[in-house]
Amino acid sequence: MALKIRLARGGSKKRPFYSIVVADARAPRDGRFIDKIGTYDPRQPKESGNRVKVDAVKAADWLRKGAQPTDRVARFLSLQEVDGKPVMKWEHGNNPKKGEPGKKAQERAKERAEKAAAAAEAAAAPAEEAASE
User: Which of 14, 56, 82, 93 is the most buried (most CB within 10 A)?
Assistant: First the structure.
């Protein structure tokens, strides 16, 4: 069973509130979970102590048991400390291919470039004939 530490959405429409839970990776986002280890209120100011509340001891215990945090939760856990050490280390992800178009778009761009080159070649051919006369 693959465990995830992730956010489960609560709150009402346009007023989000999240619980930080440990759940089976196959369970629905807001569905069944094993343990609730904290809360996250994105409407609070960033400096507020009520924005993110995590039981760091429980989180560290679940990480030792093999639970994998999502990127957002990993960011929260990197700010929490147990015995003076961070619960986990988080590094900003690097996706160098993020800005590149997909395969189909690359193929279409290549076809357009070939058509443009053929059109330019066809336009240049009559101009060369007129210049040689």
Answer: 56
- Amino acid at position 104, single letter: K
The reply to whether 10 and 67 lie within a common domain is yes
Are 105 and 129 in the same domain? yes
Residue 81 bridge partners (DSSP): 86
Is 37 inside any structural domain?
yes
CA atoms within 13 A on the CB side of 3: 16
Write the single-letter amino acid at 113. A
Count of beta carbons in the 10 Å neighbourhood of residue 128: 8
The string of pLDDT tens digits covering residues 45-78 is 988 888 999 998 999 999 999 999 998 999 898 8
CATH number for position 43: 3.30.1320.10
Phi, psi of 113 (to 5 degrees): -65, -40
pTM: 0.68
In a domain, 91, yes or no: no
Segments forming the whole domain that contains residue 105: 101-133
